[in-house]
Structures are given as C-alpha cells and as structure tokens.
Amino acid sequence: MLTASRLVLARKRRRMTLSSLSKESGVSVRSLTAFENGHKAPSPETIDALSEALKLPVDFLTAPDLDEISTDAVSFRALSKMSALDRDAARGAGRIVVEINDWIEERFGLPAPDVPTLPHLSPEEAAERVRALWGLGEAPIPNMIHLLESHGVRVFSLASDCSSVDAFSFRWERTRPFIVLNLQKSGERGRFDAAHELGHLVMHSEHRIPHGVEAEQEAQQFASAFLMPKAGLLAQKLYGADARRILSAKVKWQVAAVALAYRIHDLDLLSDWNYRTTVKLLSQMGYRSGEPGGIARESSQLLGKVFSTLRAESIPVSVMAKDINLTLEELNLHVFGLVPTVFEGGYRSSPPVRPDLRVVGP
Known about the structure:
By secondary structure, the protein is mainly alpha-helical. Helix content is 51%, strand content 4%. The termini are far apart. This is ImmA/IrrE family metallo-endopeptidase.
C-alpha cells in the first residue's frame, strides 16, 4: 500500500511538480493529488509506474511514514532567492540522509554529539569557545569533516542533482546534528562551508531560525574565525601581507586566498586600500572564481569505515540500500560516492556484531 508522505517526499526529492510527475508516470494530476492526501489508494500497477518515474524502489513508496524536515529547521542560504523545487529537493535529500544515518547508528557505535550551543556569544567568541572545548588551540585544522565526525556531527554529501543549493545543516529531533555538503566546490571552499554550517549549529539551530541575512553573516564570521584564529594569524605576522604572502599563508590554513585576505582585513591587519588592491590582483589570478592548484576535497572518514567494515563482514552494500529502500545509485549520491562499485562475496545471514566505530580525530 502506498504511503502518502513518502510519495510527497519522493516527488520533491526529484524536483517534480504534480504536473511533471503526471507526465512522467502517466498518472493524472487529480489521482496524484488524491494519493498524496491519502484520499485514494493506487493499484499495484500504478505504484510500479510511480516507482519507475521517481527512480526509487516500490519499497520506498510503501514503507512506513516519514516526517519531513521543517524548512525553518534548515540553514538554507539565500532562501528568498531559492526556488521551491530546489528547496524541497534539498530537504528531501536531507531526510534521506537521516534514514541512512539511522541504519548506520543501529549497527555501529558512533561518536556521541558534542556540539555546544552558544547563542549568546558573538561569532568570534563562539569560534574561540568551540576551539577551546575541542582542544584545538590556535593551530590549523587538518581536516574539517574528520573533526566534525569525531564530535558526533553526521556529515553527508549533497546529491549532485541538488547542486544549485549550497551546503546546509540541521539538528534532527533537536539532538542529532547533520551537515550536508555540496561537493561541486573547491576543497578550500568545502572546508569553509563545513565551518559555516558548524557556526549555524552552534549559534542558531536550537534558538533561532538558522537562515536570513543576519544569521548568514554570523555563520560566515564564525567560519572565518574558526578556520583562521586571530592568535594564529598574529603569530604568523601577516600584517600588511601582499598577494604573494597570502598565497603562501593560505597553504598552512587550507583556506581560499580571498577568504584569508578578508580575514586579515577584518582583523585590521590589512588597510582598506591594500585589501582592495590585493583582492583585485587575486581575482585577476583566478582566485575569485576558483582556487588554482588548490587542495583536494575532503571526504567522510566515518562512512569510509562503515563501508570497509561491511566489506570485511561480507555484507554487500546492496543489503544496506535495500534496508533503507533506496537504489545503490541514490545511496551513493549521499555518501560522497564511497559505495564500492565492485563487491565480491555473499550476504551473511547471521546478525552482525555491532562494531564500535570511532573517528579518531581530525
């Protein structure tokens, strides 16, 4: 029997209107509306047609109800400029990563959430406090995703068909912090996105709606201070740094050159005139639109360990996908493309031992 909430989720995940799903499936808009409102049950043949049009298994459409993620719980950027289709597709992707995470948490011992909520502090103070609580000192952060995972943040990739949406974050059921990252950016900007979303989780997610101009500015300031701590930059003696020194220093902090120039200017280590001149030169060198010769994108250590453990236990990833009612292709979109493309061995039917999966640090 079709589950109305899942039909709605699947349609939104695929960026479809009722009209476009009708065209793709051959089911009338009137019937689709009745299915989504729970006023009418489709035949098995109609469910098959919807499954094919939505590129999701029939089991996805007939599994138990799913609650949607509230728009107000998600840290969307430029929400007013975002189309409803883009917004809802991203929310659908976010709901699916919650399902994936639930499957993993039932079978692995994951790090407990350890993200403080500091709504009363300025972004600079909040970044300093989180650094202190996590024992980071003033040193560069080797890997943002590994750091977040070691403190209980569940990090997933944003499906490529949602690429018009930036990274976003939310606390599921007000407890478990999630960050979903767009992979179509440079490695440096991916790290900044991860720190930006951490800022939302720390300053906004439990106390304020985590979007809007003010919240976005605060998250940007948090990310800048978190990745490039004031004391660390002062120790590096970047006062009056020109483009050459900024390009050298950005290697240490693994940030975008323009972001480092902005941070130095924000700390009054660079005059307004020097800042404008430096950013203009960096833009001419291609550092405004990209990061020439930049670092590789970071990936998930935790998910990599999950798939390695499944492989060691001779459990095909297809079993995981089937349990979550996803196709392998859909699953792979949310897990940094880490699903093994070739897997040998059969499925062991005995109950798996629950491994104590730990992320050792950044």
